[in-house]
Amino acid sequence: MEKLTPKQQRVYDFIRDTLIDTGAPPTRAEIAQALGFASANAAQAHLRTLARKGAIELGSRRSRGIRLVNNSGEPASVDTAANDDTDDGLAVIGRVAAGEPILAVEHIERRVRIADDVFATPADYLLTVRGDSMTGVGILDGDLLGVKTASEVHNGQIGVFRLGEDVTVKRFFKSDTGAVRLQAENPAHADIQVDPEQDELVLEGLAVGVVRSIH
Fold first, then answer.
1. Which catalysed reactions does the entry list for this protein (predicted)?
2. Residue 1 within any structural domain of the chain
3. Of 53, 77, 151, 170, catalytic
4. Are 57 and 191 spatial neighbours (Cβ–Cβ below 8 Å)?
């Protein structure tokens, strides 16, 4: 990666910090607003420069299609084939049975090793994504979602939640009245409205990033 100017480093740091805080990269408009750029187009110009210098990858037309690049110069990814039979690496969790702990032995499909710099915040396990409700933030069906175990979640963060007998990945919002909304990032999917007096909502962890499997 080529050396960044101070302004370029600010853009890179903001993308990294947003990934840490919310589990998804920022939009061009969010970058422009946070860093005082005149428009989203100005932010896009900085993103193109970062991509040219090898700091990020702009491989998507989605508004949040930004990926950090690891120290080797490659997009962050994992090789799921080499580690299936070892006890090393992060557990990859598949479908979770109703009412059972997410890290129950029977839910672990395999374990994989990933580079230390894939996630800015280390993940405790990987969850296989099922469905397309979060495609707007680059979380696609079949992706491996890095999850950090946590006891609290803040508005705007993406987390893994257990709601009744279901486990879902959504963006969290809580109103002043205590009502909780789990927001989908795909207009084809409705948000989930949670009634704190009737629904049992449990935070399983926070999303810290996504990797694509190499088969």
1. Hydrolysis of Ala-|-Gly bond in repressor LexA
2. no
3. 170
4. no
